[in-house]
Amino acid sequence: MAGKTVTYSQAGVSITRGDRFIDAIRPHTRMTKRPEVLGGVGGFASLARIPSGYKSPILVTATDGVGTKLLLAKELKKHDTIGVDLVAMSVNDMVTLGAEPFLFLDYFATGKLSIREGSEVVKGVAKGCKEAGCALVGGETAEMPGLYKPGEYDLAGFGVGIVEKTKIVDGSKAKAGDVVIGLPSSGIHSNGYSLVRAILKKKRIPLKSRPALLKGKCLGDVLLQPTKIYVKDILKLQKYVTIKGMAHITGGGIVGNLPRVLPKGLSAQLNPKSWRVPPVFKFLQERGNVPEEDMFRTFNMGIGYILIVSPKDQNKTMRLLPTAKLLGKLIKKPGPSKVIWL
């Protein structure tokens, strides 16, 4: 057929660039390898043995993204922490069931692949996997010109965990009188950034500013603080304490996530003064004139993870997790209100 040829490269997708990217990220993935993993990154799929020591192993899966926090990373040209967020959102969900995160895969989609930016992102993913103790066994990199504008990218993460069937934590054994313990967040984590960006835009607040309420810290750095990974703390605690329920505080805040693990007829009675709300939340609330109820329904407000344990395990839990805060207790209260603020 006569006429001018059109190649895949001319259409905006470079196979060569993709191959170079795989070579660039290989050292990052190698640092996360677990003994159960067979082979490395680059094949069509990944192979792994079930970890030893389980009598009746149950696989646990989770998937999530990072949301519009990505837009702040792009604006600040800082891409080495957003991968930690990606891992955290899945592994923190899996460990609420008592599971050990085992494998992780990422999906990186962009208009035109930048090997430098992409490598920084995957470097963060590998760091998050290392913190969680899981292996980064592969993923997918997709160049899609026309779907994404130049310089744009999106992320998704997929995790696999494992838990002994008899040790699944689902909240069903919680009862009135059990105590509710919170673990501090590292900041906003990865939820509510559409509201964050709306406030910044409406009030014309530069990301490079250093508000007095943040004690001179760069606002952009505070907003990009990666999500805390709670996995190792929880897995350690499980060796000494029977955890009855756990909640990862993501979109919806405490009021939207804690009820997901409360049995019927029980509510959580919490004291909002039992922990210190980080300055970044106060800054956003003041500058955006955001109602308090909306703040608590959008953000974690300084508590990123919640545990439910028996009163007899309270002191041991607080001793093993020194930053933990006693938030309140479970009470008998039928009805729609599952979180009651003192």
Describe the structure.
The chain is an alpha+beta fold and 342 residues long. It is built from eleven helices and twelve strands. The chain has helices at residues 15-30, 69-76, 82-95, 115-132, 193-203, 219-223, 231-237, 253-257, 279-288, 292-298, 314-320, and strands at 37-38, 47-48, 57-65, 100-110, 135-143, 153-164, 179-184, 243-248, 266-270, 303-309, 325-332, 339-341. The strands form three sheets. It has a six-stranded mixed sheet. Strands 3-6-4-5 form a four-stranded mixed sheet, covered by helices on one side. A two-stranded antiparallel sheet has the order 1-2. Helix 1 packs parallel to helix 4 (115-132) and helix 3 (82-95) runs parallel beside helix 4. It starts with 14 loop residues before the first helix and ends with a strand.
Quick rundown:
The protein is of the alpha+beta class and 342 residues long. A 6-stranded mixed beta sheet has the order 8-10-7-11-9-12. It has a 4-stranded mixed beta sheet with strand order 3-6-4-5, with helices on one face.
Strand content: 15-25%
Catalogue the unreliable spans: none
How many helical stretches? 11
H-E string: HEEEHHEHEEEHHHEHEHHEHEE
Structural class: alpha+beta
| Annotation, overall tally of beta strands | 12
Q: What spatial form do the alpha-carbon principal axes imply?
A: globular
Main-sheet strand order equals 8-10-7-11-9-12
The chain-level mean pLDDT equals 92
Question: Percentage of helical residues?
Answer: 25-40%
Spatial gap, N to C terminus: 77 Å
Rounded to an integer in angstroms, the radius of gyration calculated over CA atoms is 22 Å
Largest sheet: 6 strands, mixed
